[in-house]
C-alpha cells in the first residue's frame, strides 16, 4: 500500500492542480462580447465599433454593440468599469471622458480600466449650415462679433474637447456664445443641417454624409495641418488663430475592459483588435471617414492615456469655469 507520505503528496498535488490549470483564455472568447459605446447610434464611435464588429468576426470574436449614451460617455463607461473583469464586457473610451475626469465631473478614473487598443484619432472641425449666412471662417467669426453671446455652437457632450474648441472659436472672435450640448454627434449634425444651431464642432466621420449631401459645410479645422479629406478647408492656425494655447490636444477613441483583466485575456483582445485596426480594410475605412489610425495598444496605450489626461487636467482649469 502506498505510504502515508506518498498519499499526502498526491493529495497536495491534487489540491494544486486547479491553480496550475491553463487559463480559460485558450478558449476565450467562447461566447459573444458586449461592446458598450457610450454615445448615440450613428455617431463616429458607433460607426467605428460596427466596422470593428465585422472585422473581428473573421477572428472568431462576436461583438454585440450596445449604445448607452449620457453624461458625455460616463454612463456607459461606468457600466464597463463595474462589470466582471473576464473580457466579456468592453467599452469605447474617448478623450471626452478624460476631460470629464479632469474636471471631477465623473467619479470614473482611468485606473478602473484595462486599456486594449486605440481605435482612432480624430481631427475636429467647425461646421455651419450650407445655406446659412457664414460661407467661411471669417464670416462666422464676424457673425459672432455682430451678435455677441447669441451665436450657438453644438457639441456632442459638454466639458469635453469639442466644448474646448467651441470655446476657442468664441475666443477667436473675442465674444461669448451659446454652447448647446447633445448626447451624440448624430443629433448635432441633424440639428445643424436643419439650422436649429448656428455652428457645430464635430469629427469628419460623423459629418461626411451631410457634407457630401450639401446640407452642412466645414469652415475650419482644429489642427496644425489641413485634412486630406477636405484639402480646401483651412486650419484655424493658418488664419492666425491659436486654438492650442495651453498645449496640444488629441481627440481619440480606444477600447477598454474593466480593471483586473487577466493577462491572457488581455493579450488575446490586444492581438485581435490590433489585427483588425491594422487591416487594410480598416485603414481604407478610416481614410474614407477622415480619421487616423495607428498601432497603439496595451502598455503603450496606458502611457498615452496618462499623457492626454495630464494635458487635459491642465487645460480644463484654464478653459472651463469651476
Automatic annotation (TrEMBL):
CDD domains: PBP2_Bug_TTT. It comes from the Bacteria. Residues 1-25 form the signal peptide. Keywords: Signal. Pfam families: TctC. InterPro entries: BUG, Bug_dom1. Belongs to the UPF0065 (bug) family. This is Tripartite tricarboxylate transporter substrate binding protein. It comes from Achromobacter aloeverae.
Amino acid at each position: 500500500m502506498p505510504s502515508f507520505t506518498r498519499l499526502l503528496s498526491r493529495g497536495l498535488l491534487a489540491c494544486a492542480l486547479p491553480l496550475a490549470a491553463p487559463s480559460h483564455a485558450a478558449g476565450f472568447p467562447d461566447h459573444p462580447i458586449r461592446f458598450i459605446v457610450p454615445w448615440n447610434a450613428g455617431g463616429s464611435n458607433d460607426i467605428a465599433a460596427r466596422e470593428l464588429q465585422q472585422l473581428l468576426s473573421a477572428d472568431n470574436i462576436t461583438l454585440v454593440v450596445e449604445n448607452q449614451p449620457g453624461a458625455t460617455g460616463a454612463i456607459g463607461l461606468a457600466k464597463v468599469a463595474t462589470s466582471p473583469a473576464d473580457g466579456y464586457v468592453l467599452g469605447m473610451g474617448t478623450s471626452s471622458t478624460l476631460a470629464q475626469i479632469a474636471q471631477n465631473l465623473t467619479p470614473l478614473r482611468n485606473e478602473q480600466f484595462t486599456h486594449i487598443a486605440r481605435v482612432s484619432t480624430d481631427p475636429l472641425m467647425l461646421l455651419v449650415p450650407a445655406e446659412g449666412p457664414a460661407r467661411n471662417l471669417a464670416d462666422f467669426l464676424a457673425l459672432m462679433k455682430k451678435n455677441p453671446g447669441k451665436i450657438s455652437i453644438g457639441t456632442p457632450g459638454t466639458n469635453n474637447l469639442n466644448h474646448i474648441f467651441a470655446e476657442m472659436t468664441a475666443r477667436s472672435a473675442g465674444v461669448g456664445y451659446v454652447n448647446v450640448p447633445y448626447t451624440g454627434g448624430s443629433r448635432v449634425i441633424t440639428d445643424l443641417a436643419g439650422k436649429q444651431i448656428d455652428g457645430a464642432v464635430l469629427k469628419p466621420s460623423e459629418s461626411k454624409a451631410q457634407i457630401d449631401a450639401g446640407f452642412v459645410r466645414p469652415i475650419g479645422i482644429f489642427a496644425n495641418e489641413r485634412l486630406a479629406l477636405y484639402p480646401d478647408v483651412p486650419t484655424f492656425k493658418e488664419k492666425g488663430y491659436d486654438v492650442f494655447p495651453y498645449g496640444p490636444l488629441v481627440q481619440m477613441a480606444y477600447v477598454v475592459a474593466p480593471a483586473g483583466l487577466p493577462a491572457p485575456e488581455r493579450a488575446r483582445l490586444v492581438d485581435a483588435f490590433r489585427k483588425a485596426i491594422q487591416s487594410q480594410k480598416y485603414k481604407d475605412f478610416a481614410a474614407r471617414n477622415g480619421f487616423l489610425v495607428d498601432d497603439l495598444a496595451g502598455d503603450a496605450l496606458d502611457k498615452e492615456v496618462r499623457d492626454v489626461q495630464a494635458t487635459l487636467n491642465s487645460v480644463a482649469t484654464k478653459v472651463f469655469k469651476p
